[in-house]
């Protein structure tokens, strides 16, 4: 716990220094600067200390001493390994997680190391083993329940919502449920309609659940460790297409007690003209789009949500109050989705008055996922869709 | 004279063998082939049944050739799919059926095309036996507009008349099959539904719910468990407290059948179909079979079983070889004739693969269509609010 606080302080200090440094260097339009100052003051007046720390704590990609390159799969694997070692009550169950090393090899080597008691292969019976996992959590163990993909969680969703999410409330605090449900979410490549759905909005809808959606290896590592250590049910939405993608991880991130706070978004890229808010794989698309737009003089601020619920509205608001423009980007369907929620919250909060244009969502197309490659490519948000939308919003 | 003819025909046959097999014109008349033969087949294990299917099966020459051709077509089609997948022309999931051909072909031999069938994702063989063509199956695998689902479904979502796929979610197809059976009973059309699932799915709760309702309501459903010993990487011993899948229906009568013998499967299916059509309600068949490939193309299939095991099944129990040996040793067909069929099949597969790789992808206009049936066209939201797409039924 102390590490979390120390971490935050470090971020604050670093951020403040860099911000001060930048102020000396960059030439931003005075309108944007005024807006930024106004935003800070307003924030401060509105909610005091926490707001200030939010403004100060706007992190962006650092180039700390890179210790090692780790892909998302290995980051998840190492996180689980370390947490299994740290706490005997942690165990993993799911289909093919043990002897097969995991359907996507995320749990490779764990059965060999920890054995049958702690890494359990289940039959193909999601409703049953999800219930068993929740029951084990009731009795004080800390299960990690893997769904081979989140599509199959629909077979077990009653256990996730009714048995896990609501129990602490129904018992008036007597029965916590320290469980993590994890697995790949959203679209993959060529796996067609029944295997490509995004469940961020479905689970994000439910009080009592924490819903996390990491993008890169640092997210995966820090958030999974935090999820396992959290005493609440956490829905952990991974992405199959990100598993093999490598990222540089600093020594600090590789520390065995490195955790990221659940419920805090991260500004991956500072910008002044428009805010792009996204989660999971689409964060990468936003950064790619931002790089292209930068060549045309448009500076995008890219916010990586990291957590779907609880939603870090403050970070989004602070960014929108700075840039005046908002685009949300997600892989899931538009209707009643993550982007819809963000837009609604912005409407209802102080950032609305700072919008110079309506907030817009970039989403997956509102159809079941087709199989043929050309159709599939056109069913998901592409970088060109993000660029197009940014330009439309900025009236370019 | 007879002797002369025999010598000449032998010589002709001999020279034909040295050259291309296509030189062979049947130098023996059909009158020389045995028109039908009766074979002993393995006794089935019974659960809650006094009698089972007969211990012998009669096979006519025509049936034999038909089964041979169909099984060979499935085999070659699956191997071609393997090739195309490795060339990345087929993507996503691809679950191959080679080794299990006797099940699909035997089942179809015991029912008619006006009966209904539903299975899980290892469905290419059934799509064929249920009336699909190799061309449209392969074009679906490669995601082209000529595919059986216009390229929109892919490997696991192929449909034909009275064939309800092709289902991606393990176990979900079983209650669906009972629903089809309910409709058959409701409409009084004397049809039945065959509802297939694997050894992995056999532990699914929804299957037991389906057993219960089908029995209560005496639905005309044949539950068939294709037990190929492994659910992805998990063997039956590691996933089931009871591996006697034909008994798992408890109060539902069951039979356990050698799924590598097309005649066993056919006779068992005929027996089961008669049971259903007599109004007795559901019956359960366990087919003991084997898949040569891994669970899917992303599974090499040798981390949880040995190559020796696969080889042993191939050499001792291959369904196509078994039928071929039976026909040849009973003079029901000639080697050349079967070779001709092989060549014809190979050509059919090649043509289909050619079509499947050259047919264009579906048009973008098709992206949003088929959301609702019998509806007016309506607007669909694209990736951005300015991307307006249209859906037609």
UniProtKB/TrEMBL annotation, chain A:
Cofactor(s) named in the record: thiamine diphosphate
Major place of residence: mitochondrion
Molecular functions (GO terms): metal ion binding; pyruvate dehydrogenase (acetyl-transferring) activity
Keywords assigned: Carbohydrate metabolism, Glucose metabolism, Metal-binding, Mitochondrion, Oxidoreductase, Potassium, Pyruvate, Thiamine pyrophosphate, Transit peptide
Domain Transketolase-like pyrimidine-binding residues, every copy: 70-245
Subunit structure: Heterotetramer of two PDHA1 and two PDHB subunits. The heterotetramer interacts with DLAT, and is part of the multimeric pyruvate dehydrogenase complex that contains multiple copies of pyruvate dehydrogenase (E1), dihydrolipoamide acetyltransferase (DLAT, E2) and lipoamide dehydrogenase (DLD, E3). These subunits are bound to an inner core composed of about 48 DLAT and 12 PDHX molecules. Interacts with DLAT.
Main function: The pyruvate dehydrogenase complex catalyzes the overall conversion of pyruvate to acetyl-CoA and CO2.
The name this protein goes by in its record: Pyruvate dehydrogenase E1 component subunit beta
Gene name for this UniProt entry: PDHB
UniProtKB/TrEMBL annotation, chain B:
Coiled-coil annotated residue ranges, if any: none
The UniProt record lists the keyword Cell membrane: no
GO molecular function: metal ion binding; pyruvate dehydrogenase (acetyl-transferring) activity
Predominant localisation class: mitochondrion
UniProtKB keywords: Carbohydrate metabolism, Glucose metabolism, Magnesium, Metal-binding, Mitochondrion, Oxidoreductase, Phosphoprotein, Pyruvate, Thiamine pyrophosphate, Transit peptide
Localisation per UniProt entry: Mitochondrion matrix
Gene3D superfamilies: 3.40.50.970
Protein name: Pyruvate dehydrogenase E1 component subunit alpha
Highest taxon listed in the record's lineage: Eukaryota
Biological processes, Gene Ontology terms: glucose metabolic process; pyruvate decarboxylation to acetyl-CoA
EC number: 1.2.4.1
Cofactor(s) listed: thiamine diphosphate; Mg(2+)
Reactions performed catalytically: N(6)-[(R)-lipoyl]-L-lysyl-[protein] + pyruvate + H(+) = N(6)-[(R)-S(8)-acetyldihydrolipoyl]-L-lysyl-[protein] + CO2
Organism: Oncorhynchus kisutch (Coho salmon)
Pfam families: E1_dh
NCBIfam families registered for this protein in UniProt: PDH_E1_alph_y
